[in-house]
Each structure stands twice: as C-alpha cells, then as structure tokens.
Amino acid sequence: MTKPNFDEMPLDQLKAYILEHRNDDEAFSVYIARRRAQSPNVVPMTIEEAEADLQKRFGQQAS
C-alpha cells in the first residue's frame, strides 16, 4: 500500500487522514509544518512594553 502525497493533500483532508491513522508520524509532521507556515508568529508587544506592563501591574499590587 502506498502512502498518499501529504504535501499535495488539502489541509482538511490531511487532518481527516491523521484522525484515521493516528500512528502516522510522517503525516502528523507534515500537518504541523503546514499549519505553522499558515500562522505567522505574532509578538503582541515588545519586551520593553511587556516589562512596563508587568512593572505597572505588580507595582500596583505591592502598594
């Protein structure tokens, strides 16, 4: 039995395949890689903004 071409398979079909073949690590790896490629890595704030926010929050709690 030959495996399907996971790179060419639509994402929803690949997800259905994984649900039917839960031990297929190759299919799962392709699915995760494709999902990560679709989701940009968004940073909601800079480190400086995060530090200021934490200082504001914890500074208010300590008072």
Question: Can you offer a commentary on this structure?
Answer:
The protein has 63 residues and is mostly helical. The protein has a domain of 39 residues. α1 runs antiparallel to α2. 3% of the residues are buried. The mean pLDDT is 89.
Q: Estimate the global geometry from the Cα principal axes.
A: elongated
Q: Termini separation (Å)? A: 68 Å
Number of strands: 0
Written as H for each helix and E for each strand, in order along the chain, the element string is: HHH
Mean pLDDT: 89
Classify the helix fraction into a percent range.
Answer: 55-70%
Biggest sheet character: none
Considering the chains and any ligands shown, give keywords for the structure.
63 residues; mainly alpha; 3 helices; 0% strand; elongated
Secondary-structure topology with pairs:
Layout: H1 11-20, H2 25-38, H3 47-62
Helix pairs in contact: 1-2
Brief description of this entry?
The protein is an all-alpha fold and 63 residues long. The protein has helices at residues 11-20, 25-38, 47-62.
